[in-house]
Amino acid sequence: AAKAAGPQSLRRYDRELHAAVVEHAQLDQALREALNQRQFELHYQPQCDVNGTWVGAEALVRWRHPQRGWVSPGTFIPACEESGLILRLGLQVLEMACARLAQWQAMPHLAGLMLSVNVSARQFRQPEFVRQVAQALAASGAPARKLKLELTESVMVDDVEQVTGKMKALRELGVSFSLDDFGTGYSSLSQLQRLPLDQIKIDQSFVRDLLTSPNDASIARTVIALGQSLGLDVVAEGVETAAQRDFLHQHGCRTFQGYFFSRPLPQAQFEEGVPALADPPRALQRLS
Ligand code: C2E
Ligand code: MG
Ligand code: MG
Ligand code: MG
Predict the structure, then answer these.
(1) How many other CB atoms are there within 10 angstroms of residue 18's CB atom?
(2) DSSP state of 159
(3) Cα–chain center distance at 151
(4) Which of 26, 27, 121, 221 is the most exposed place for a label (fewest CB within 10 A)?
(5) What is the pLDDT along the chain (288 residues), one digit of tens a residue?
(6) Are the beta carbons of 98 and 142 closer than 8 angstroms?
(7) Which atom of ligand 1 is closest in space to residue 61's alpha carbon?
């Protein structure tokens, strides 16, 4: 049973709530400034075949905070989603990724790589999204065939006809699609089967305990089999050990992403082509 809240605790609650609201507003303001001042950068995590040969990369946004150093997206993406700033951030990410992809075409060791870019459901939902992608490609000169967009199952709360219509328009440009964090959302198999996808990514939550959790192991095997039967590539995320890679490979997974192969790398380091297996040079931090 709750104790009657005296004036003391009420004041305390008010103070905490007030502090939270102020903090929220401050983060929002800081994010607006960060967008205006172009403080966001992309890091790149290699995607590898079983031998560790790079076949692609995922662009992962980081905030280079003037005082705090690198800030990880787990801290600011949810705030951006809530405020709508994700639309501006998503466009900056898309433009940066296409510019990079265009430059890689002149670098023989990177010219063959696909580049995957995360797209939030809210960003994808915009009527002008197809035009934005087309413009980012045209302005940069990046080859559409090398650009892959990662969607999550949250796009499927929308009308499937509309979602597939947009995907088809983008596919006509040459762009391909991956379904990120697969297995964590609510999409049904019939929806999955109707989306014009090229790839699904097994969420890292199923990879983490693969060798000790029979449930996670059977989910991972099922996702691989599902991908195979739908003719989709399957990428495993969060692969941290050789044993996880071997299990996934034995069950038919052909592409891997995770700290076992490399951490996400700042652009210059990624372009050197050397994976970072040890601790990152500058640890990402959470704001709170
Ligand atoms: P995600 O798209 O599922 O990206 C994979 C996340 O797993 C990344 O976290 C990556 O650093 C992390 N990761 C990679 N390998 C391992 C591993 O072996 N073990 C573990 N424990 N983690 C690993 P990150 O960079 O912090 O990004 C988190 C999420 O933020 C992303 O999850 C994605 O949902 C979102 N995000 C990142 N960049 C963007 C972006 O440009 N736009 C949007 N809309 N979302 C983004
Ligand atoms: Mg992703
Ligand atoms: Mg993921
Ligand atoms: Mg994730």
Answers:
(1) 10
(2) -
(3) 8
(4) 26
(5) 444 556 666 677 677 777 877 788 889 999 999 999 999 999 999 999 999 999 999 999 999 998 888 899 998 999 999 999 999 999 999 999 999 999 999 999 999 999 999 999 999 999 999 999 999 999 999 999 999 999 998 888 878 899 999 999 999 999 999 999 998 887 778 888 889 999 999 999 999 999 999 999 999 999 999 999 999 999 999 999 999 999 999 999 999 999 999 999 999 999 998 777 755 444 455 554
(6) yes
(7) 38
* Look-up of token digits 């403080």: 39
- Please tell me if the CB atom of residue 202 comes closer than 6 angstroms to any atom of ligand 1: no
- ipTM of this predicted complex? 0.98
Q: Determine phi and psi for 136, rounding to 5 degrees.
A: -65, -40
> pTM for the full model?
0.92
Nearest to 87 by CA among 63, 119, 64, 60: 119
d(CA 133, CA 249): 34
Cα gap 168→196, rounded to integer Å = 7
Instruction: Give the 3-state secondary structure of residue 52.
Output: coil
Helix/strand number for the chain, H first, E second? 11, 10
Q: How far is the CA of 60 from the centre of ligand 1 (A)?
A: 6
Give the separation between CA 236 and CA 217, rounded to whole angstroms.
12
Distance between Cα 9 and ligand 4 center (Å):
38
Joined together, the tokens standing for residue 150 give 């990662």
Tell me 146's DSSP state: G
Copy the structure tokens of residue 253: 């997974």
CB 204 less than 6 A from any atom of ligand 1: yes
Mutate to test the pocket of ligand 1, among 118, 179, 180 (most ligand atoms within 8 A of CB): 118
